[in-house]
Design a protein that fits this description.
The complex is a heterodimer. Chain A contains 4 helices and 2 strands; from the N terminus they run αααββα. Chain A is mainly alpha-helical. Chain A has 2 domains: 37 residues, no CATH class; 33 residues, no CATH class. By secondary structure, chain B is an all-alpha fold. Chain B has one domain. Chain B is elongated, with a radius of gyration of 38 Å. Classes of the chains: A mainly alpha, B mainly alpha.
Chain lengths: 78, 227
């Protein structure tokens, strides 16, 4: 395995608490159930646009390229 | 694949298992799965189906599909960065300079600076996902940032010493508040005593004051006003 990939896998393992191989092998719904059991509640699915996602339509108006970039800068600045 | 763009369905699924799925599971484990990532998956699936349904070549269909998967990975990186930065902001409200004689703060600021610079550079390098020559460039830039974010969470945000610093700060602020209260009460009492003393001195009868000395005389100190 390449060192970059090993570093990536190690980071995933630290973040999820499972080995990278186990994650790859586990069905997604099983992983979700495990996470929900650990958290004691259902996962929350929500929109993170415009920080992520392609397509520039946000319900009732368009977001300019500048606004999208500004959102990213705000997220990075913290 | 080897750092190049996947060209076959097998390589596409290699990419899915090596990069996409672990990142998606990371987002699930922090309860941040965005719906935008499902749009990317849906689009990837649609592109892939065109190879069989509309006679697109495998290379074309896989190229379009993996661009969406790659975009989904970039989205995951950004969400992880945002979370790390939110946690950094939270940590700034705690006086972490008392941990490890300031080494904790120095290390944390250095790491956060690296994350911010790396994320900005990687974002600028994203470019066109279908470009074969630079297909992996942004990935190479995003991955160290991702690893730094995970290191930040583990070594700084979830560090036991932060909780200790937070408790110490709370104790000290409580003590300071208590001292302020006592100080206020003492000042209030002293001021009251001073005012009482000044007013009693000013109004008490004295031998040289405005009131005549009536001791030893039968006469009243001042004539009574006629009724």
């Amino acid at each position: 395995m390449e060192p970059e990939q090993a570093g990536f896998d190690r980071a995933v393992e630290m973040a999820t608490g499972m080995t990278a191989d186990a994650i790859r092998n586990m069905p997604l719904d099983q992983f979700r159930k495990d996470v929900e059991d650990r958290r004691g509640g259902a996962l929350r699915y929500r929109s993170v646009f415009p920080l992520v996602g392609r397509g520039n339509v946000l319900r009732d108006r368009l977001k300019t390229h500048h606004e999208v970039e500004e959102e990213f800068r705000r997220a990075v600045r913290g | 694949m080897a750092n190049g763009r996947p060209k076959t369905v097998k390589e596409l699924f290699d990419f899915y298992y090596i990069k996409f799925k672990p990142l998606y599971c990371h987002l699930q484990s922090i309860n941040e799965p965005p719906i935008e990532i499902f749009f990317e998956l849906n689009a990837a699936f649609d592109h892939l189906s065109r190879h069989w349904q509309y006679g697109q070549t495998e290379d074309e269909a896989v190229g379009a599909a993996c661009a969406h998967l790659k975009r989904g990975c970039f989205d995951a990186f950004k969400i992880v960065v945002r979370q790390a930065m939110d946690h950094f902001t939270e940590l700034r409200s705690v006086d972490t300079s008392i941990i490890d004689n300031g080494d904790f703060d120095r290390g944390m600021l250095q790491l956060v600076g690296r994350i911010q610079a790396g994320a900005t550079k990687a974002r600028q390098a994203e470019g066109d996902s279908r470009d074969e020559t630079s297909w992996h460039t942004a990935f190479d830039l995003w991955e160290p940032v991702y690893q730094d974010c995970v290191a930040f969470e583990r070594n700084y945000y979830l560090n036991d010493k932060v909780e200790w610093a937070r408790k110490k700060q709370t104790r000290e602020s409580r003590r300071a508040a208590w001292f302020r209260r006592v100080e206020g009460a003492v000042l209030g009492v002293v001021t009251s005593l001073l005012v009482w003393w000044l007013t009693s001195c000013g109004s008490a009868p004295s031998s040289t004051g405005a009131y005549p000395n009536v001791q030893g005389t039968d006469a009243p100190a001042s004539p009574r006003p006629p009724r």
